[in-house]
Design goal:
Blueprint (H helix, E strand, L loop, with lengths): L4 E4 L2 E4 L7 H11 L8 H9 L2 E7 L2 E10 L4 E9 L8 H11 L8 E4 L5 H5 L24
């Protein structure tokens, strides 16, 4: 799969894993992301290694991420989506989602899924809807797993 590097002024979205700043990603996820506070760095590294990632950069500084868990054929899970607080309001999250949703190898999937506690309106702009029949979904969820 060919990596992409898309530029908009001083900002770049890239799928090149070499550019990802593990320290910056871990700092955000472990201290500011409500969904995974205290996540260990080795868990972040393993997650990145086993996912398809879109990094967002200002020059060389990592300022955002979207991580996709997928088989590139039938399903994709969108997670760990963020833009650093100081860069919000510039349209970067919308640009990131446009880039993810239009990526050629992610077209024609039967299902996309995600969990969000606060960004419903962003995702609705890209056709996401509430689960039509939540009685079909099940989960095992340990919200304190990183505190043990």
């Amino acid at each position: 799969m060919t990596d992409i590097n898309i530029y908009k002024g001083e900002f770049c979205i890239s799928t090149d894993k070499v550019k990802l700043d593990l320290d910056a990603i871990h700092e955000f996820l472990s201290t500011r992301a409500y969904w995974c506070i205290n996540i260990p760095k080795d868990k972040v590294q393993t997650a990145i290694e086993n996912s398809f990632c879109f990094g967002v950069y200002q020059d060389e500084k990592q300022i955002g991420l979207a991580r996709i868990i997928t088989d590139f054929s039938t399903i994709a899970y969108l997670g760990d989506v963020y833009i650093l607080e100081e860069y919000r309001g510039l349209g970067l999250s919308k640009w990131l989602m446009e880039t993810v949703m239009n990526y050629p190898s992610l077209q024609g999937l039967r299902r996309w899924i995600l969990l969000t506690g606060d960004a419903h309106e962003l995702y609705r702009k890209f056709g996401w809807i509430d689960i039509a029949d939540p009685t079909k979904w099940m989960e095992l969820h340990d919200k304190n797993v990183y505190s043990k």
